[in-house]
Design a protein that fits this description.
By secondary structure, the chain is mainly beta. Helices cover 8% and strands 45% of the residues. The protein has four helices and 36 strands. The protein has a 17-stranded antiparallel sheet. Helix 1 (2-20) runs antiparallel to helix 2 (43-54). The longest helix is centred in the first third of the chain and has 19 residues, at 2-20. The radius of gyration is 26 Å and the shape is globular.
Length: 558
């Protein structure tokens, strides 16, 4: 009966995988990869994996697990987390959820071996009696009483994070009150967002969100400009929730650029140290778009009709350091009306968005001005933004990552201040000061009163090597170990080495002419220690004068 169940489970996984997969790639005899890299886990496969884990007869482990040589586990095994090392015998099926598995010399799995959200290392060293199946897709789950449940692929976009207050539900729909705090900044202080979110049921639901944004810098005496809003209406199409039409009306304060530091990092820097490394402007108007996200491909076509306005620095709180220092002036933008068309295309095959070790992330966005009046002139510019990343797993705990980011003006017509760029400091060139390469905008005595933010074009190359130290300690090496018990320590520090090179300019030179001259590039190198996302780094500039820079990050560099 047990053998029959194992055969049925493996067959069901393979049938479901082949029926729903986009591509199949056999890496060796008996080893199946039913999904293309980055493809979401099919629902039927997820249901089978949940049923296997929740079965009373399944032997469960969690976290780093080791089966030493000479030891045997009799029965079907599930490991939630990992990594897993097998030197002994598993007499049954083995499923590893969100972890890597290493088969050592002399190891044996008598049944089928399934790896979800991880990689198999040493397939030629161990003996697997059944079928080996690997899925690069992360298995997203929630704990339940006595088991787990599947939490979905995590692919749906544009669902704000925050607290919700449930309202009465109905059979074919749901509603809730949404409450959230946006990033702390020197224009609004802490923006508080509150409002209803309503979604109908069915395969093509309609979702309505209507939020009020209260800018707490006003205290208890708000004026008209201290309240913003966002109203969005989304209609899903074609029955799979991967294509939608959306329209919105909004009045928001947005950063001109936000890709170098995370929202949390910039908010804490301002709140603790009185340093805000972003500049902001007000966008008020409407938009309409067609969006899609199918598997690992996403994109949108959008039309915007907005008014853009300069906003001034306000006196916000800082609680620890530099409390008496004046806050930096905010950049002035080209004010007025702007109508534009924005096309965005992307592909995301990363196995993990926070700490990827394989896959691509490529995103390209092009904005074409089609009307309006900015600073007394008809806008006629084309703006490009690229973000290309590639991650390679080079060993069990080592990752090599590359990134090229760039963009700015296309053609001869300059972009307005709110579409300019700058580089330097954390997130781009950590060996240099923050905002160091802004084409002299902040050295101009008229900065903050005359439109100007940075450069017309920029390019940035980043390379990073990260290798895990895999530190662990345990009492007894002669039994089957789950390293996360009360007698063990387990954390995953990593050594990071990196190199960065960038250029930013406002001359009439095109991308090719400027970037093929090595004298136009600046570069740095450095290294540091990462502890689960938090990292401490030292960087040194290779171009120009300057010493070592020390910096802390709360997220991965890219």
């Amino acid at each position: 009966m047990k053998a029959a169940y194992r055969t049925l489970f493996a067959a069901a996984l393979l049938v479901a995988s082949h029926a729903l997969a986009v591509a199949q790639d056999t890496v060796s005899v008996g080893v199946q990869e039913p999904l293309a890299a980055g493809e979401a886990l099919p629902q039927r496969v997820a249901d089978l994996l949940v049923a296997y884990y929740n079965r009373p007869s399944t032997i469960r482990f969690g976290g780093r697990t080791y089966v030493p040589a000479g030891r045997s586990i009799g029965g079907d095994v599930a490991v939630l987390g990992g990594p897993v090392e097998i030197a002994g015998i598993v007499d049954g099926d083995l499923v590893v959820y969100n972890g890597d598995i290493t088969l050592l010399e002399g190891s044996r799995v008598s049944g089928n071996l399934t790896v979800v959200g991880g990689v198999l290392i040493g397939a030629d060293r161990g003996d697997v009696g059944g079928i080996i199946t690997t899925y690069t897709a992360v298995f997203r789950y929630r704990r339940t009483n006595g088991g787990i449940e599947y939490a979905g692929s995590g692919r749906e976009t544009y669902r704000p994070e925050g607290r919700t207050l449930a309202l009465p539900q109905w059979e074919l729909g749901e509603s809730e009150i949404f409450v959230d705090a946006r990033p702390y900044n020197r224009i609004e202080a802490l923006p508080i967002v509150i409002g209803p979110r309503i979604m109908t049921g069915g395969s093509n639901p309609l979702r309505l969100e209507a939020f009020v944004i209260y800018r707490t810098v006003a205290g208890f005496s708000p004026e008209e400009g201290d309240v913003g809003w966002e109203v969005r209406l989304r209609q899903y199409l074609f029955g799979h929730r991967d294509v939608w039409l959306e329209a919105g009306w909004q009045s928001v304060i947005d950063p001109i650029e936000n890709w170098k530091l995370s929202d949390l990092e910039n908010s804490l820097t301002l709140f603790l140290f009185r340093r805000d490394y972003r500049d902001y402007y007000e966008r008020q108007g409407w938009y309409g778009l067609l969006g899609w996200q199918t598997g690992n491909v996403f994109g949108s076509f959008e039309f915007r009709g907005e008014d853009h306005r300069t906003v001034n620095t306000r006196n916000v709180w800082t609680i620890l350091f530099n409390k008496s220092d004046p806050l930096r002036p905010n950049a002035a933008v080209d004010q007025g009306e702007l109508q534009s068309i924005v096309a965005t295309f992307g592909i995301d095959t990363r196995n993990n968005k926070n700490r990827p070790w394989s896959g691509w992330y490529n995103r390209i966005s092009v904005e074409q001005a089609v009307g309006g009046n900015l600073a007394g002139e008809d806008p006629d510019f084309t703006h490009l933004l690229l973000d290309l990343r590639r991650f390679f797993r080079v060993s069990l705990g080592s990752v090599l990552g590359f990134r090229f980011a760039g963009g700015g003006r296309l053609g001869d017509n300059p972009t307005p201040a709110q579409r300019q760029h700058m580089i330097g400091g954390a997130g781009s060139l950590p060996g240099y000061d923050m905002m160091q390469f802004d084409c002299g905008a902040r050295e101009d005595p008229t900065f903050g009163t005359v439109p100007g933010y940075g450069c017309q074009r920029f390019a940035l190359f980043q390379a990073e090597y990260r290798t895990s130290l895999n530190f662990n300690w345990r009492l007894n090496d002669e039994q089957v170990h789950n390293y996360r018990d009360v007698f063990s320590m387990d954390f995953d520090p990593a050594i990071v080495l990196f190199y960065d090179a960038g250029a930013a300019w406002s001359t009439d030179e095109n991308y090719w002419d400027h970037l093929t001259d090595s004298d136009n590039w600046v570069a740095d190198l450095g290294g540091g220690l990462e502890l689960g996302g938090f990292g401490a780094y030292v960087a040194y500039p290779l171009t120009g004068s300057g010493g070592f820079n020390f910096l802390l990050r709360l997220t991965a560099r890219f």
